[in-house]
Amino acid sequence: MRILAALLLLLASLPLTAATGTPAPPQGAESNLQLTQCMSLQGSLSRQTTALAELQAHSQALSSQRELERMRNESRIQALENEKARLLSAAVIAVLILLLAAATSFGLLLRKRHRQLRRLSEVDVLTGLGNRRAATRKLDALAAQRGPDGTRHVLFLIDVDHFKQINDSHGHHVGDEVLVALAAKLKAACRPTDLVARWGGEEFLVACTSLTREQAEQVAARLRRAMAYTLETTHAARLITVSLGLAPIPFFDSGDEPSPASCWDYALRMADRALYAAKRHRDAWVGYWGAQLPDNATAEAVLEQPEAADGIVTVMSSVPRIVSTSSAAARARSLKALRAQG
């Protein structure tokens, strides 16, 4: 723009010179002056062109630099957004992991508490032995199994002799001490695999697996001796004894054939009758061991009169008189009382 302006000024000055009537310089001087002016204008034009080119190059460089800076900023923004998304994803995953861990921990805690509550609900508070509920559950599982040939599971029902007299004479707190002491002695006399429980009141229950009849007799004698001890009181010493009744599971030797008499509750009822017979003598044990049940007798009839079921029930006892009495009763009574009652 500056070059064009200079050319216009030059052209405008030529007519003015002629119009003024100023004497024109000689023709050669005028040509030299115009040449000089043209060369000056050409140089100025060249400089302006160079400056314009430099200005354009500088402008392009600035534009390129701004574009590059914009691209860099966009790249940084994209990187920040990617980092933000990554952090957000990591945070979500971390929260999910924490929630999963918390849920797992809570579930494990609930299971632990459930096991603790179940354990507490199956433990006798006074003696620390299993209670009737725990014993019932374990007896269900025990009755479903069968021992090796020639053996059966055996139930022992144990009752403390003269326990009411102990409570009446020395107080219930002494009675509780007696139960705690007997429970500890009973637990120590049994195998780790044996079921030992407080059945209720002053009664204890023991279940041993896979015993022969002779072994059952030995266990009964051992338990009776192990639980006897002398109670020292402020007034006098008192001998504490127990009576036991035992019966096998299944009660009859009927092989694997299922029947009501193969359940543990039938054996428990038979052990209870044996305990009743032992209680007549105190500090004794009595056991009933069933053989094969004939077709002309029922399990319920045998349960009513086990000592009269000669050839069906073997009576065992620490008191020989009980065995001889049962043999005499068996000879005196007919098996007609044990026949099927329809």
TrEMBL record:
Organism, scientific name: Thermomonas fusca
Enzyme class: transferase
Residues covered by the GGDEF domain: 151-291
Signal peptide (residue range): 1-18
Cofactor: Mg(2+)
Signal listed as a keyword: yes
Catalytic activity: 2 GTP = 3',3'-c-di-GMP + 2 diphosphate
PANTHER family attached to this UniProt entry: DIGUANYLATE CYCLASE DGCM-RELATED, REGULATORY COMPONENTS OF SENSORY TRANSDUCTION SYSTEM
Biological process annotations from GO: cell adhesion involved in single-species biofilm formation; negative regulation of bacterial-type flagellum-dependent cell motility
Single GO MF annotation: diguanylate cyclase activity
Gene3D superfamilies: 3.30.70.270
Name of the protein this chain belongs to: diguanylate cyclase
UniProt cross-references to InterPro entries, sorted A to Z: Diguanylate_Cyclase, GGDEF_dom, Nucleotide_cyclase, Rev_trsase/Diguanyl_cyclase
Classification via Pfam families: GGDEF (PF00990)
Keywords annotated in UniProt: Membrane, Signal, Transmembrane, Transmembrane helix
EC numbers on record: 2.7.7.65
Cellular component, GO annotation: plasma membrane
Transmembrane segments: 87-110
PROSITE patterns tied to this protein: GGDEF
